[in-house]
Write a structure and sequence with these properties.
The chain is α+β, with helices and mostly antiparallel strands and 523 residues long. Helix content is 21%, strand content 17%. Helix 2 packs across helix 7, helix 5 packs across helix 6 and helix 9 packs antiparallel against helix 10.
């Protein structure tokens, strides 16, 4: 029997600001003192020129709609608030009459005029230049003199295009993220982690979060005031207690797993942004995102051989359990991020909750079912659309041990196979003994104190042969010879402390011919 075809792992981009993900390219600037308040738009002066999102109100009393305004001089762009920003935005009553964006992301007026919606700002007239680039334009000019624009991915939104002032590779390097924190809670651990890091110089070209604020405090949601503007927060945080908050993007509200995972995969710039309180002042971390890849990518980095189905069910289960709900909030995001950091490197972050320390600990306990002969136990199939039931490991990464077992399905080869799988996925397995009767493995993981006792059974289709109930193995006079002295001593100590986790595992091939190594948890 040949190993199954390789399962394609999910995309796990390490850099959310790569050119393909819709984020603006970043430009490094020197580490200099920036006097006074930073402008809300690079190159602008004075108060924010951000506009409230469509359908929202900032509760500011309005002047009559009919106003007399100075006509801007040619080449001088003035926003509808009178602040120079590089754009002349259409008033709302004109913008609402435009048709929706076409497939190219542009809106076409009745007189062959072309408009682009600048993300989080407004709609402006654009013209196509001789160089093939779209630029913001005034009605009074034939050749556009405004900023060069680029489309945000495949969305109907546009943004300023950042043009490198110098050709060739940059000699500056972005500091590596130093994730070194040790605390027991998600929020507190992240504060310790972020405060310990050196904050890189502000990347003004990517500071889109500055346009998320409003001059008035939102009445229906939590908010944070930074430099006189109020920024909506992901709900149920404790910014005053933990000095950390998550700013919420106006186009995305974190809620359920599917939408959150899709956002991280397709447009990670929509995720919330970290804000930390340093020396009594709130600062937004502009040099890093909370999540730099989809959640399944984080799981795949820590558990390299999990099947695609297991990656999805583990990621969804972690997302839902982080907040004890299918809808996540600020505290859940903190627990989620801290847990993923712990999985990747337990020396850099402590686990916020023990039950999240390991996907095996997240498995439900499968009750034993009585059958006619009380010998076989039904194995529920893996299903990406249901709750976490089991862990499956695809054999591409351990093909040699897999093929050895396929050719000779002995207890010895079964133990060798499971040992290889566990070691490859970050577990510490006690050495195999020379007694292979009743194949059993004892193993641990460095980030928690639980001891796993794995019994390997014979699988027949969708059932596994039941063995002695969990705990009864300790009375087996042959147990020491089956697992070794060191494993037996560690197991006895953990049993006295109620820290043993009882497992069943083996090799299963589905009716469609797909084979995997599986682990389930028994009670």
């Amino acid at each position: 029997m040949k190993p199954p075809k390789k399962v394609t792992k999910p995309n796990t981009p390490d850099n959310p600001n790569s050119p393909d993900d819709g984020a603006p390219p970043r430009r490094e600037i020197p580490d200099i003192e920036l006097p006074g308040r930073l402008p809300d738009i690079p190159g602008a002066e004075g108060p924010s020129t951000s506009r409230p999102a469509e359908g929202e109100s900032d509760n500011v009393p309005r002047q009559p709609q009919l106003e007399v305004a100075d006509i801007p001089l040619s080449g001088q762009f003035v926003s509808d608030t009178g602040t120079r920003s590089g754009f002349s935005f259409l008033p709302d009553f004109l913008a609402r009459d435009l048709p929706a964006a076409d497939l190219d992301g542009l809106r076409y007026g009745k007189r062959q005029t072309i408009y682009a919606e600048i993300e989080n700002e407004g709609i402006t007239l654009v013209r196509l230049g001789a160089d093939g680039e779209y630029r913001a334009a005034l009605l009074t000019e034939l050749v556009a003199s405004g900023p060069v624009l680029e489309r945000v991915g495949n969305t109907p939104f546009w943004r300023r295009k950042v043009v490198d002032e110098q050709a060739g590779p940059s000699v500056s390097k972005r500091p590596r993220v130093d994730e070194s924190a040790d605390s027991s809670s998600g929020e507190a651990a992240q504060v310790s982690d972020q405060l310990a890091q050196h904050l890189a110089p502000l990347d003004l070209s990517a500071a889109q979060w500055r346009n998320w604020g409003s001059s008035t405090r939102p009445l229906a949601s939590e908010s944070l005031e930074i430099n006189g503007l109020h920024y909506p927060l992901v709900p149920n945080g404790s910014p005053q207690s933990h000095s950390i908050a998550y700013l919420q993007h106006p186009r995305f509200s974190p809620a359920r797993y599917e939408a959150f995972e899709q956002m991280l995969h397709d447009e990670p710039t929509l995720q919330p942004r970290w804000a930390l309180k340093r020396d009594g002042q709130w600062q937004v971390l502009e040099d890093r995102f909370p999540f730099n890849r989809p959640l399944t990518g984080y799981v795949a980095n820590s558990y390299r051989d999990l099947s695609q189905t297991s990656l999805t069910t583990v990621a969804r289960s972690l997302f839902n359990r982080a907040n004890h709900s299918e809808v996540i909030d600020s505290r859940g995001l903190a627990v989620l991020k801290q847990t993923l950091r712990n999985w990747a490197d337990n020396t850099s972050a402590s686990i916020p909750r023990l039950e999240l320390a390991d996907p095996i600990l997240m498995l439900p306990i499968i009750p034993r079912t009585r059958s006619a002969n009380n010998v076989w136990m039904t194995l529920l199939p893996a299903d990406a659309n249901t709750a976490l039931r089991r862990l499956d490991f695809t054999p591409e990464g351990f093909a040699a041990q897999w093929n050895n077992f396929v050719i000779d399905p002995s207890n010895y080869n079964l133990k060798q196979l499971l040992t290889a799988v566990l070691v490859r996925n970050g577990y510490d397995v006690f050495p195999m003994s020379s007694d292979h009767r009743g194949p059993t493995l004892v193993f641990t993981r460095a980030n928690h104190d639980r001891v796993f006792f794995l019994k390997l059974g014979n699988v027949n289709g969708e059932t596994i042969r039941q063995m002695a109930p969990s705990g009864d193995e300790l009375s087996d006079p042959h147990l020491v010879s089956r697992i070794g002295e060191a494993a037996h001593e560690r197991l006895r100590t953990a049993y006295d402390q109620n820290r043993v986790v009882w497992l069943l595992g083996g090799v299963q091939t589905t009716s469609s011919g797909v084979g995997s190594v599986f682990i389930v948890r028994e009670g």
